Amino acid sequence: MAVDRVHDGPAIGPGGDVVIAERSRSHSDGGSTVLSATELRAAVDEVADPEIPNVSIVELGMIGTIEADGDRIRVELLPTFVGCPALEVIRDAIGRRLAADPREVRVDVSFATPWTSDRITASGREKLRRSGFAPLPPVRSGRALPMLGLASPAIPPAPAEGEEFDEPVVPCPLCGSARTTLESPFGPTPCRMIWHCADCRQPFEAFKPI
User: Cα separation of 203 and 46, whole Å?
Assistant: First the structure.
């Protein structure tokens, strides 16, 4: 594979494919190594989200299938939102990370498997919390617009011992309080929103539950 990244065919655009030019099919060329399926996923797991670099794209649930045959590796990338501005950066990063494999790398943006906030792994949720983001609880079924259902007209009281909120609670990642309210459904990126904590009086971000 070439040391430099090249795009074979039409210029990259929405729905296009990132392709890395092949250097050689030989396993011994320049120390190239054919990675196993486990090694491929582990390598992709090292690709950080460009907007939240403490979390990998695998931990965010953005990787679907990873298929490999004799000549090609195909990685399925699941966008968090249509038009995500970080897609091209992520696709290029995946290509660079798999450059040690002599096979052609193809990264396909796919909506066949929709991304949802439930795809975020347990380790991803913990890393988000440590980074100041509030990962949301699992989305309940039967809600067409779950994001809107999270807005509260007033600050909720602290729950009594053994009590549960009717709506999913978005705890503050800074102090752990459950007395939080949705301040704005529009955050710095399409997949995030702004919340406010009544106890520590700090704003924080959370992923939209979809």
Answer: 29
Q: How many domains does the chain have?
A: 2
Last residue of a domain, one of 48, 78, 109: 109
Comparing CA positions, the residue from 159, 1, 123, 16 lying closest to residue 73 is 1
Residue 6 has pLDDT above 50, yes or no: no
180 beta partners: 197
Phi-psi region of 99 (alpha: psi -120 to 50; beta: other; left: phi over 0): alpha
Helix axes 87-97, 37-44, angle to 10 degrees: 130
Helix runs in 22-152, H state only: 37-44, 87-97, 122-130
The pLDDT confidence band at residue 85, using thresholds 50, 70 and 90, is: confident
Residue 7: inside a domain, yes or no? no
Is 132 part of a structural domain of the chain?
yes
pTM: 0.68
